[in-house]
Amino acid sequence: MIRKLLLVAAAIAMPASAGAVALVGTASPAGAVTPITCTVTAVVHFAAPGLTFNGSTTTATTSNTTTSGGVLGGTSCGSTHAGTLSNQTIKTAAIKCTGAGMPSSNPACKAPPPQLYGYDSWKNYASSGVSSILASLPNISFKVGTTTYTAHNTAAAELLPNAAGCGTGTTGLGKEVGFKITGKITTAGPYLNAVSTLKACLGKVTGLHLVAAHAPATVPTFFYQINGATNLGNTTQTSTIDPAHSSLSF
After folding, report:
1. Which residues contact 144 (CB under 8 A, 6 or more apart)?
2. Which of 22, 129, 147, 228 has the fewest Cβ atoms within 10 angstroms?
3. What whole-number distance in Å separates Cα of residue 51 and Cα of residue 40?
4. C-alpha 240: how far from its chain's center?
5. pTM score, two decimals?
6. How many domains is the chain built from?
7. What is the per-residue pLDDT across 15-66, written as a single tens digit (0 to 9) for each?
8. Quick check: is 211 in a domain?
9. Domain boundaries, position 232
């Protein structure tokens, strides 16, 4: 599920409210441009009732993770230092139930009939892969100042709690995971064909019976809700993209 979410939030091309977005400028026919880097913040909403160890079941063959409230900011975020990120929907294939608790990735499954499909278990999230994000978000749009840009996404990857990903976890909200989406700007103008990079790291969460905060964080965070092989009885309903480690650049 972590990969799925990591996927999310491109979700993140996510429009939710928590992260930083950086756009990397490249030379265009008009010459070099000034790179733009924005922090990103947004909220990721997992399919109801939320992520759990056992997951949930449905008669539908897909489930949706959405993002909302995407805000861009920071002193390097264009002339006005502010912008917005559009809301996104990440569709993920549900897992066909083959029996009680089967497949093992979805303990909530029941034997048919009726035919049910499992979704949003921890193992689903970990195994769904960034491919769900890329498939659901071929393009993302965002506004910096008064200009709206569109980026065509070409690759997605998960981010781990390390220096190259979502930070080492020694400050702020501690360990985080997320995803990175790269592509190219397709909007005519000086940034046409510039490489775009969206990094979304999942921080604080809301839900039921959440795992308590781990230092240095003082609030429950996403990493510790799904990090383990034991059913902790917690339900993760939303996660906020952490602007301290999230960015959009082009």
Report:
1. 23, 36, 38, 72, 77, 78, 80, 82, 83
2. 228
3. 23
4. 9
5. 0.86
6. 1
7. 333 333 343 444 444 457 899 999 999 999 999 999 999 999 999 999 999 9
8. yes
9. 2-52+60-93+128-249
